[in-house]
Design a protein that fits this description.
little secondary structure; paralog of FGE (formylglycine-generating enzyme); 4-stranded mixed sheet
């Protein structure tokens, strides 16, 4: 069945709005006293054409996340770089935008909620969907160690509720982020009264952002739907789905880029000699360079002279065979992983950005990722996509599990648009350092690297202290799962990079600055 497209341009970019309210009288968002600054016509007035403009109040911090104010930093290897290792993390200055990041790794209890929802929605008709999402508990097995208790209990037992989920591949973590986006925004609509809770949704009748905004998800209609101000709207068209321009949705949850992860882990905001506060703007300098996330000191132990002096600040392997110290004096008090809120957070308020478990990042691995990449929001792994459309240009119907089908941009589509700097929509190999412009990474033939090779960072309970330095990087196939790799999500900060909801740019008195 063909359906009317609502907000198709939003689908091409991905969901990217957040919770706010609407008002007729505001000077924000191109409005002045409820009038258009372009034409002078009244806004949000059905009798005057009904152009609907939201009064955006600012992006709130999502549940479980902390604000990471962006900036420039030196990305790459630290002073402790081992000369015997591959020189694939050359220092370079880059800038990242502000974003939000989970203050902890995703814990077992949170990932089990995901599995529970999938089981409720797909377990009867599509059990393979649930099976594909399950962590691989066998990652705990080792040929010459007895780890069967972890195989049986680590993911399921209540004792490990707050421990980081492991055994999750890069692809599974990416799917979790998409699911989280839908569930969080669904709950926003429930709170607004636009839809009612629908615990019976299953198969193709499940809420996703794309199907909702394109009118393909009906669900249970609530009593407080969004009124359509179009004066020609009659009957059922008097109400419409919420759109990104209404300012009610959160942006997508996703994995962090390698640059974002490294920047957040370093926590250099704590090294600013005079950070921004109510009386000063802050300095445009950062003193020292952190080797580890907890400050400009090359030590893994707590240094202040109090009852905590000498305690380990991260969960790692101190030496071969020494996983936790001696009885009566456990150094990190963790044999394998530790609860996600263990140890001290860094200056951004992020826990375990060193040790506990390594973490997936979004980037595709290349040894030469430092060469020729952008110095603003650097990332390798872009694959441009768009929703699949029917012959009449409308979006394809949802599939059997309730998702809008997407497809990669063809080379012809990319070449027809001169805004793109490449001739392909798949940029995993773009400027990857090879002498052959069209070189193909053939995994297991001429390399151990291909387009499914992903970066992970952070060090773990099974690693030596060296790997806890945020500048270090390793790689593994994205469809691989391990007992020492977990993940956390990030969310883009849209609009102003200032977490105080201040408009972007310097105001010089035109608008009141909101200081910490």
């Amino acid at each position: 069945m063909k359906r009317k497209i609502i907000g198709i341009s939003l689908l091409c970019l991905g969901a990217a709005t957040f919770f706010s309210a609407c008002s007729k009288n505001s000077a924000a968002n191109g409005k002045g006293d409820g009038m258009s600054r372009v034409t002078g016509w009244p806004l949000n007035d059905r009798s005057m054409g009904g152009y609907d403009v939201a009064d955006f109040k600012g992006q709130p911090t999502p549940t479980g996340m902390v604000f990471v104010q962006g900036g420039r930093f030196t990305m790459g290897a630290t002073d402790d770089e081992m000369p015997t290792l591959e020189n694939n993390s050359v220092r370079r200055t880059v800038s990242v935008s502000s974003f939000y990041m989970d203050e902890t790794e995703i814990a077992n209890v949170g990932y089990r909620e995901y599995i529970y929802w999938l089981g409720r929605a797909y377990g009867n008709d599509y059990p393979d969907v649930v099976q594909r999402a399950l962590p691989d508990s066998t990652v705990w097995r080792s040929a010459l160690a007895y780890n069967e208790p972890y195989v049986k209990n680590y993911f399921r037992a209540a004792a490990y509720n707050d421990y980081p989920v492991v055994g999750v591949s890069w692809y599974q973590a990416t799917d979790f982020c998409k699911w989280r986006t839908d569930r969080v925004n669904e709950f926003i609509l429930i709170k607004l009264g636009a839809i009612r809770p629908n615990p019976e949704q299953s198969g193709e009748d499940v809420f996703t952002m794309e199907t909702y905004m394109n009118g393909q998800y009906q669900g249970r209609v609530g009593g407080n739907q969004k009124r359509n101000l179009d004066p020609q709207a009659t009957g059922d068209d008097r109400f419409r789905p919420y759109a990104l321009s209404d300012g009610v949705f959160f942006p997508d949850y996703r994995l962090p880029t390698e640059a974002e992860w490294e920047y957040a882990a370093l926590g250099l905001i704590g090294n600013n000699p005079t950070p921004e506060n109510k009386r000063r703007r802050g300095e445009e300098v950062v003193t020292d360079r952190n080797t580890l996330p907890w400050g400009p000191k090359n030590t893994t132990r707590y240094g202040l002279h109090n009852q905590y002096q000498g305690e380990f600040e991260g969960n790692y392997m101190r030496a071969k065979g020494d996983a936790m110290g001696v009885a009566g004096g456990l150094n990190d008090n963790a044999d394998i992983t530790a609860p996600v809120h263990s140890f001290l957070p860094n200056a951004f308020g992020l826990y375990n950005m060193a040790g506990n478990v390594n973490e997936w990042v979004m980037d595709t691995y290349r040894p030469s990722s430092h060469e020729d990449v952008d110095d603003f929001r650097p990332f390798r792994g872009n694959v441009y996509t768009r929703p699949s459309v029917q012959e009449d240009g409308t979006i394809e119907d949802r599939d059997t599990i309730g998702h809008i089908p997407y497809q990669n941009l063809t080379n012809a589509e990319v070449q027809a648009n001169n805004r793109y700097e490449t001739r392909s929509g798949d940029l995993n190999n773009y400027k990857d350092g090879d002498s052959l412009s069209q070189f193909t990474y053939a995994y297991g033939v001429n390399t151990l690297v291909n387009d499914s090779t992903k970066v992970y960072k952070g060090g773990s309970f099974a690693d030596r202290a060296y790997w806890m330095s945020p500048g270090t990087r390793r790689y593994i196939q994205g469809n691989t799962a391990r007992s020492d790799i977990g993940f956390r999500c990030v969310m883009d900060r849209l609009g102003s990079p200032d977490g105080d909801e201040q408009p972007g740019g310097n105001s010089f008195g035109q608008q009141k600055r909101h200081k910490r």
